Structure formats: C-alpha cells, structure tokens
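#struct-pred

JT: dropping the chains for the assembly here, can someone run the whole complex?
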Amino acid sequence: MKYGLNKNNWLSRAALGFAAVFAALGGTAAASTVGEVNIYSYRQEFLIRPFLDRFTKETGIHVNVVFAKKGILQRLKQEGRNTPADVVLTAGFSRLQALKDAGLLQRVDLATLNANVPARYRDPQGYWTGLTLRSRIIVYSKDRVAPGAIRRYEDLADPKWKGKICVRTGSHAYNRALVASIIAANGEAAAEQWARGLVANFARKPQGNDRAQAKAVYEGVCDIAVMNTYYFGKMKFNKKNPEQRAWAASLKILFPNQDGRGAHVNASGAGVVKYAKNRDNAVRLLEFLSDSHAQELYASRNYEYPVKAGVGWSDEVKSWGLFKADDLALVRIFELGPAAQRLIDRVGWR
Amino acid sequence: MAVTTGAQTLRPGKPRARVRFGSWDAATIVVAAIFAAPVLAVIGLAMAPAEDIWPHLIDTVLGGYIANTLIVMAGVGAGTLVTGVGTAWLVTMCQFPGRRIFEWALLVPLAVPGYVIAYTYTDLLEYAGPVQKALRVAFGWQSAQDYGFPDIRTIGGAVAMLTLVLYPYVYLLSRAAFLGQSICALEAGRTLGHGPWRSFWHIALPLARPAIAVGVALVLMETLNDFGVMDYFAVQTFTVGIYNTWLGMNSLPGAAQLSTVLLIFVLVLFGLEYAGRRGQRYHEATPRHQALPGYRLRGPRAAAAAIGCGLPVVFGFVVPAWVLGGYALRYWAVALERNFFTLVGNSVLLSAMAAGLALSIALFLSYGARLKGGAPIKAATRFAAIGYAVPGAVLAVGVVMALAWFDRAVDFLSMSLFGVSTGLIVSGTVVALLFAYVTRFLALAHGAVEAGMGRITPSMDDAARSLGASAAATLRRVHIPMIRGSALTAILLVFVDTMKELPMTLLLRPFNFDTLATFTYQYAGDEQLEEAALSALTIVIAGIGPVILLSLAIRRSHRVI
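RK: done, full complex below.
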C-alpha cells in the first residue's frame, strides 16, 4: 500500500497549496474607495493609457481598467446594480448604442460636454458621447492608379477595377458601418448592387486587418484598398517597424465623395454606467476626454480626428488634407447595422 | 465550493456492494451541475425570444459555415490522428536515435497558441516574407504574377496550423495508453508470431482506442471553437458565424442558438463514437507493467523514425519559436515596459491552480460515474465537460451569467437574513477566472482521467470493496495510484491550455489584471506580431518547463507501477 500513502501526501500537499494561493490572490480584488474611477473598455488599454495617466496626474483620481473585446455588455447587465464599473469606453459608437438600448447607461446632460461634442456625434438624449473621429478612406497605389481615376465609394464597384481591390472581411464593424452609410445614402437595393460589384472586383479573399490591405497594395497583390485613417498614420510614422513606412509611402490617400455627401466617418466614444458608484469622477473623466487637451493628444498620438471643433489637428493628420465628412447621424448607422450585416451575408463579402 | 461538496461525501462509509441512489450520486450530480451551469446558461439564452435569424442564415451563409467546419474538422482530425498515434507508437515501442528527446519534444507544440503559429507562418510564407523573397531572388521572378505560391491564408493553411499545435493531445493520450498496456498482451501477440506491424494494428491500437478517441475528441472540440486562426485566415466556420451573428446582427440569442446547435453536433459525434465501441471491453486483466522491450530500428528505418518524429516538432515549435525569437530580440524593449514578471507569475499561478482544480473535479466526477455507472450520472458527468466545444467568448457570457446568479442568490439571502448586501462576491475576481477555466477545460482533465480509469478492470474495485475498503478509500488507494500517469496528463493539458486562454480571461478578469495571453493580445490583436513576440515566446517557454517535467513524470509513473 505504499502507493496509497504516497498519493495521500501528494493530494494533501496540493490542497494546502491551493488554500495558500487563494489567500494570496484574494488580496488583488480591487477595493472601492473614494478617488477612483473604474472603466470597462472595448478599446485596447495601451491606446488610452496615456490619457488616463494624464487624467490621474491632473485630478488625483485613480483609474482602473478592464479591457475586453467581447461581452462587456453582458457582464454589465449581469452585474446589475452591483457593478463596479463607472464608465464604458468603446472603439466604435455602435456598442454604446447597444448599451443604451439595454438600459445600462445613464444620461449625462452636461454643458461642457455638449459644447465640446457636436450633436451628430453624440446620443440625442445624452446617454453616450463620441470622443474621436476617423474616416474610412480609399487608398491606392501611387504607381498603378492615376489620381482622380477613383473619387467615390461607389466607384469601387466599377468593373474596370476587376481583380484590383483589397478589403478586410465585410462583417467587420468598420465595413458594416460603411455599408450602413451607403444604405442610408442610396437605399438598400443600390447598396446591395454596389456591394456585389465590389465583391466581384476583389483581388483576393478578404483577410487580415486594414493594415494588411495596405501591405497588399505595396506588394502588388492589388491596387486599391479601404482603410481607417489612423492606420495610415500608424504605418507612416512607425518607429518600431520601419518596414511599414514603405507600405504607407507606396500609397495615396483619397477622401471619397467630396463632391457629394462626404467621406464616411466613425467615432470612438464613452458613456457613464447607469449604476456607477463614482459618478462624479466618471463625468469628470468624460469632460476631460472631450476637452481640448486630451483631444489634441488623441490626434497626435493615435492619428485620430478630435471631435471637438476648433482643436488643432496634429501635423501628420493635417498633412492628409481637409475633408468633408458625411454628416449622417451615428445613431442612424447603428440602426442600419443589422440590415447591413444581412446585405454583406447575401453578397458573400467574406 | 464544489470541492467541499465533494469532500464531505468522501468520508469512508460502510462497504456496500451495491448502493442505491446515495450521497456519491447526489454529490456527483451537484458538482456536474455547477460546472454545466455556464453551458446551460447559453442554452437558456438560446431559448430567449428573439428575432428569427435562421431564414436569413439558411439563405446566405449557413451552408458555407457547415461545409467549412466539416472540412476543417476532417482535415485536423485525420492529421492529428496520424501524427499523434504514429509518433506515440514510435517513441513508445521503438528504439531509435533521439527517442528520449522526442518523448517530451513532441509535446512542446502544445504550448504554442493557435493564433501565434498562424501569425508566424503568415509572416514567413506571405509575398513579402523571407521564403518568397528568397525564391524570387533565386529564380529572378519580378512579381506575384510570375509564379504560383500556395496561399497560407486558406482552409488548407488553417488545417495545417491547427494540426501542428493540436496533435500533441492525441500523442499524449495514445502514448499514455501504449505505456499503460500490459506487457502480457503484447507478449502473447509475439508468441503467436505477430511482428511489430501486426502487434500495432491488432493489439495495441484496438486496446488504445478509447484513449485515442478521447484525444481526437479534444482536438475536434478545440477545432470547432477556434476563432483566432479562422478569423486571421478568413475561413468562415461555424464559430466565426456565431460571432458574426452576435456582434454583426446584434443577436446574442441567435449566437446562443448557433452555439446550441454546435453542442448538439458534438454530443451526436460522441454518441456515435461511444456506440461504435459499445459491447467491447478495454480493461486489462493484469496490471503487470515493465519497461517495454522496444523494437530496435537500424539504418534507414531508424532515420525514417527520427525524421517522422522530428518534422512535427520542427514545424510546430522550432520554426515559430525561431521567428518569434528573432522579433523578440529586436523588440524586447516593448515587452519590458510592463512588469513582465507579474504577468508570468499571474499566468503560471492561475494555470497551476486551474489544473489542480480541474483534475480534482474530473477525478471526482469520473469516479462518481464509475461507482454507479447509471446512465443519467454518466450523461451528467459528460455534459459537465462539454464547455470545451463552445466558442470561448460565448462560454464567457455563460460564466458571467452563472456567477451573477450565484452572487445575486447570496446577496438576496444575506439581505433577507441579515439585512446586509454582499454585492458581488465572485464576479470580477480571480475566483471567477478559475471557475471559467475549469468549466472550459474540464473536458481535458475528464478525458484524460476517463481514459485512465477505463483501463482499470472493475474486478479491482470489487476486490478492494470486498476487502472492506470504502468507495473513497478505493479511489485513494487503488485508482489514483494506478492512473497517476493519466492524472499528470490531465494537469499538463489544463495547465498549458489555461496559459493560452484568451477570450474568457479578457472578459472575466479583475481590474488592472493581465496575464501573458492578454498582454500578447494587445499587440497581436492588431496583427503586430513583432511587438507581441516576446510575450508570445514567453507563453511558449513558460509552457515548456511543465511540459518536460510532467512528461518525465508520466514516464516514471509507468515505470514504478
């Protein structure tokens, strides 16, 4: 029976170890104290860290963050009134609208916020606000596409570009929003016809992120791609990975539909959680993020456009030129989202 | 809490040959229910009234999802079966140069996350990668139009990537089975004139079938729930469709319905395999084990064996580690911005705890099912382990719901009894993470333990019980020593998988809490492999240590007994 005795020790030692480790980890649960604000973030933490650090420095308010890509809405919903979260930050506004619809946000009707953020970039009832803007633009090869050959999103469906276009999968939030904006502008039937034309022009099966499309143009796999503006900045000034500068250098930027409705624009944003325990700090954070200083930082660090009018653009962003933005309300894009997804499924943009 | 419930019933009781529905059964069902709760929550979500998404899905994308999923499953299933069983047989039963190293080295690809290997091979094989560059220089090609080069971002590429990182499941389980096989059976085969091949096909392989089936089942479940590789390679599988429905059509109930279909599919698959070997017994009459003699291979055969075992290791580990290592050297500063050792500590600690917990619960459930063997209990224990087939982020939502239910119940009790609100007790804590890991990875531990228990003939139980040992004492003194190798296998699998786990960790973790996987994802999620390289490499390296140690322990465990 010597094995039995051995096993006994082995098991009981394991149990003891568990108990000790549990006790040690118990200490990491955040205690709610005055002077902090808790964020559930759909935005990558490293993108927003600089702003949060600045906020802490200016106000003394400590910031705690959980970043997750999926499921924050469900976590908030289940935690209910006991939730530790005060603020939700999102990379696209549609998540905010979904949070509002689920009754998880509260109204913040604040003069400063309303003054900072134009009405079309926030919720009409004040449940959420946009914080930064980016445009979904067309880029094309400097060498292989003549300037002016393409001017509008609609041109991407022109059969003359057959086998020339690279774009990420249609189900991605940014493409879905773009399709929604085209449905809003031209109607669903025309949008579907456009999407069919676009799919017929693909150089390859959609794959990778926006940056991967730029790389494909650089490599000669295709001539035209669609991407968000900040990706261009991130490639052009990439210090860590200089190879990406060459990708950006091979491209020209085009803000589409400048003679018409303007280029499609998407927003990142934030809202205050309905059951926020640190509501004052949460509101303060929103004010801070929408005010000139943070807005300038956004533009220079992340190559996004400030949402606040009159805030200077960074030199890089400025170098892409002024452009006319589609003034379609973000809420409308959200409403058309499911219709856009269906359309994308129908035309096989995948 | 689950463990305590079990421990209470582990008190030695009176020896009884046949018990009616007793405390073991009750405890088994309770524990199984606790860990099935998240899956049940997902099924509950599927029942919620919602817009009917099916007509649209059937008209457009569903056929593609199903076809792609079946192709990937068939490819990965076949690939891992051949690679895993073949290499396991070679290192267990043959002697050739390097065998001692291959024994553990063949496990190492297990530590490489699927999305990481997909990134590294894309980097190597795409147009601007070193391989195509070298080819262009060598042959004087100018552009992509001048030559054909297979695209890695395809369904075939996805099959290759998953096969490379998943075959160790099959290898591990079938090797444990080969090692555990009684020498008598093989000796009897030899007396009857069986050569090595016939021994393999007619004795070792059939005897190892339950273990191999468990290994392949684990591989298929992991293949089904994979999102990282499929998303990156843009292969539209069922799981990708679940996420599109959830996030694209804003329909979580729809996504839950699709997940439920996935679960039913998995259950049917298991049912078929189980029915296929019903009536056959794989117990062995004698536990007589000793170092297997091994067929001594020479010359070209030895070389072929070494190459056969070397290829999976080279492609599954050496190449990705080499690519990552190159980047890590150039971009190490990025990774060191944070307190790197905290990340390592968090990952290792959580993984070790999850592994220990999963093993304890798997032991408890398997033994509970073995004791009575009633169909309802067997079904309950199997169902508890099915969380592995659900896409991670969907299961995470199920976990959130289960934990919130627990928190609310405690809160309500405390309010009504003492007038004190307890708020959130487990939600958003490390306990929530551990619960999630066990829910997800119980299948790994349960599969390994089942495979081990299945080899112990019931007459052992009967002998122990007739000598007066209680059920608990029999488990402790007979079963656990005999399945030590399988138990270590369970620990190894859960540990390594927890190290790599991402979607549940992201959603369920406490504030300001990072693991190596979440840290890697910061950059890898943006397809910036270079900046993620060091932490990705660390996941792999942190996984290798335990892999080697446990592999040695598994070998030793079989030698002792």
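JT: nice. Residues 299-335 of chain B form the longest helix (37 residues). Chain B is about 75% helix and 0% strand.
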